[in-house]
Amino acid sequence: MRKADSAYRRVAEAAARRYAPAGRFAMRFALGKLRHDPIFAAILAQGLIPDRARLVDFGCGQGLLLALLVAAVDGFAPTAWPAGWPPPPRPESMTGFDIGPRTIELARTALGGRATLARADLRNIALPACDAIAIIDVLHYVDARAQEDALAKCAKALTAGGVLLLRVADARAGWRFALTRISDQLATLARDRVWPRLHCRPLADWITLLERVGFEVQPQPASAGTPFANALLVAQRR
Questions:
Q1: DSSP summary character for residue 102
Q2: What pLDDT is attached to residue 2?
């Protein structure tokens, strides 16, 4: 294993251990997701969250990104950090919102007082002023109008030059998109006992929407090592 992989794995393991008080399943889920979903390592490797940012995680689930940032900052040492990666960001504040009561409780268990966490629906939440927003695999669960309203709300909340990290599936990616969609639906069925209707768009349409509400967008693949059709849109507020 490459040195960078080994160093990141140690950070992911430290983040996952924060879920130990919630039980073995929560801890193992956190470890599996942090190790095998490429979005988390990419955010750290590319320094996508500015230092001293007021960070909002919109649809934070059980707080995996926030727990990863805490573990990275707490355990940071230049000699143990992946070579070529910038130092981990030290957010001025972290706020996580999610609709699920169970996931918010898991996030509170892992994060303690290191983040502000609350149940909220993206369709009616008032976002605080912030410098960075993460929305990972969330917007396809609401309809097109709600997606547009949510992104306009993000643009309004972000400071000029602030960054939105938005991961979406590309609806024009053929069988890879079909696999991504069915995986999301099966995961929702297992978790919530409902079969969700998903509202997906081609990647070009997501970019057009973001530009319309005030962002400059840099798309990049976000499925390394997986068969899925995910893309990360790094959108900077104009």
A1: H
A2: 63
Task: Please compute Rg for the chain using Cα positions.
Answer: 17
User: What do you get for the CA distance between the two ends of the chain, in Å?
Assistant: 40
Mean pLDDT, the chain, integer:
95
Average pLDDT (123-133) is 94
**Helix 38-45 with 24-36: angle, nearest 10 deg:** 60
Q: DSSP character for 218?
A: E
- Is residue 160's pLDDT more than 80? yes
The model's confidence at residue 1, banded by pLDDT at 50, 70 and 90, is very low
Closest by CA to 91, choosing from 73, 118, 109, is 73
CATH superfamily entry for domain 3-237:
Vaccinia Virus protein VP39 (3.40.50.150)
Q: What is the sign of the dihedral through the CA atoms of 185, 192, 123 and 97?
A: negative
Contacts of 191 (CB under 8 A, 6+ apart): none
Strand ranges, E, within the chain: 54-58, 93-98, 116-119, 130-136, 158-169, 215-221, 230-237
What are the respective helix, strand and coil percentages of the chain, to the nearest 5? Answer: 45, 20, 35
What is the maximal distance between C-alpha atoms in the chain? 48
